[in-house]
Amino acid sequence: MAKLWFSWSVIVLIQVFEFAMSKLELVTTPPLPILPLPTASQLKWQQRELIMFLHFGMNTFTDSEWGTGHENPSIFNPTGLNAHQWADVAAEAGFSLMIMTAKHHDGFCLWPSQYTDYSVISSPWRNGNGDVVQELVKAATTRGIDVGLYLSPWDRHDKRYGREQLYNEYYLAQLQELLTRYGSVQEIWFDGAKGSNAPNMSYYFGDWFSMVKELQGSINVFSDAGPDVRWVGDEQGFAGSTCWSTINRTSLSIGNGSILGYLNTGDPKGTDWLPAECDVSIRTGWFWHKSEEPKKLSKLLEIYYNSVGRNCVLLLNVPPNSTGLISDTDILRLGEFRKAIDTIFSTNLAEGSIIKASSRRGGKTGGFGPENVLDEDHLWTYWAPKDETKEEQWIEIRGKEEGLRFNVVRIQEAIGLGQRIKQHEIYADGNLVANGTTIGYKRLYRLEEVVHARHVRIQIKESWGLPLISSIGLHFDPFWYPKET
């Protein structure tokens, strides 16, 4: 009897297991990724969209952009410096990361480095006891903002510059100071800028990058060649109309002027995930100059559409003045900029519409339907078509009876599984209104006319593997003045 009961129990368990397995087999899995993929730190960086740059130092007091390295430290005296004001301005304008020039080309250090006296310790500011980097970190932390640093490789003051080993040791020592004294640093900026008459010497970038990663595990390293974030190739804040986050790092080198076009567009066959950062100043110069005014709102919005709207992050420089504060005119313009972005994008005019697609992975219950493009997750929920479909893929927004009125189209890919789309077109009631190549994390189209339509279709003409669309938005930009039909 016991044997019989045991056999019956085993049969029941097997049947339950087989039933459970059959149920599991009905759950549709995500598609395979298209390599390369972003790291967690790169994804966090991409989602910031806006980063603030703070060019501040000796040049602020000499009305120059590139100092000579011979300026007297007594010149540096920002008597009203208030890093809390900087952080307040950044937070209210929507910046989640602030990057400061801890040392620019003149070699003057905004922190009390033990390896040189050409720093704040030799200035009258705070009676030689000040530390701009520390004050920034404290203020940023209070507002929940992350911190990044720029440490210029070119140093026009230090006598070790030009003596290769000595200077690389000095630079590494200062890197260690900055990355061990001030807590978490989320981005560090390297460039190859130097004058034509500068001594010819090699920077040990490989050593520097290794040290940075050892000391700050979640940091993103920016340079012309990454390894985490690349320069977009210009200082106008414009990415290429084609902009891949992928590129071949072996084709890159820091300070190489012949690769600017490659940096601007990336490479569809690139083996490295290295997204672009667009750096530009709110003023003409990088440092504060009394004679300059901030760019017009229309220009800042143009920059936004051509940076964030082309799969990049915008690094906007807002230089503190010689008092040590961000100027009122810059604060006003930043407030206008933030308000404009919120006005345009806080409402998705596609919400409440019916969403149709050429096909969907796993059918109606698969979890990859077109309705995902209207949820709040712009990264990990997405529309995916069927694997076996060979025809062109499309996704369509069908508005209510009154139709849709918009002049901005937003499309986002599920880049956590790779960047895929090579070419696409946008139709409104069957009429072509926009077309382009890459999409990436975010693509924005500001149309030449206000569109009234019942149906808006995005046609995927070509992609690596299955196209995965995570979000679609239709928006109205009242700051743009096209002709209305």
* Binned strand content: 15-25%
Q: Supply Rg.
A: 26 Å
Class based on secondary structure composition and strand pairing: alpha/beta
Question: The CATH topology of the largest domain, please?
Answer: TIM Barrel
Give the helix level as a range of percent: 25-40%
- What is the CATH top level name of the largest domain? Alpha Beta
List low-pLDDT spans: none
Order of strands in the sheet with the most strands? 1-2-3-4-5-6-9-10
Could you say which overall geometry the principal axes of the C-alpha atoms support? Answer: globular
Cα(first) to Cα(last) distance is 85 Å
Keywords: Apoplast, Glycoprotein, Glycosidase, Hydrolase, Secreted, Signal
GO molecular function, one term: alpha-L-fucosidase activity
Family: Belongs to the glycosyl hydrolase 29 family.
Domain Glycoside hydrolase family 29 N-terminal: 73-335
Brief rundown of the structure:
With 485 residues, the chain is α/β, with parallel strands linked by helices. The protein has ten helices and 19 strands.
Describe this structure in words.
The chain folds into two domains: 40-345, Glycosidases (TIM Barrel, Alpha-Beta Barrel); 354-475, Galactose-binding domain-like (Jelly Rolls, Sandwich), CATH 2.60.120.260. β2, α5 and β3 (146-151) form a beta-alpha-beta unit. It contains ten helices and 19 strands. It is of the alpha/beta class. It starts with a helix and ends with a strand.
Write the layout of secondary structure elements.
Layout: H1 2-26, H2 40-48, E1 50-54, H3 59-62, H4 83-92, E2 97-103, H5 132-142, E3 146-151, H6 164-181, E4 187-189, H7 205-215, E5 220-223, E6 229-231, E7 246-247, H8 260-265, E8 272-273, E9 276-281, H9 297-307, E10 313-317, H10 328-345, E11 354-357, E12 393-398, E13 404-413, E14 421-428, E15 431-436, E16 443-453, E17 455-463, E18 469-475, E19 483-484
Parallel strand pairs: 1-2, 1-10, 2-3, 3-4, 4-5, 5-6, 6-9, 9-10, 16-19
Antiparallel strand pairs: 7-8, 11-12, 12-17, 13-16, 13-18, 14-15, 14-17
Helix pairs in contact: 4-5, 6-7
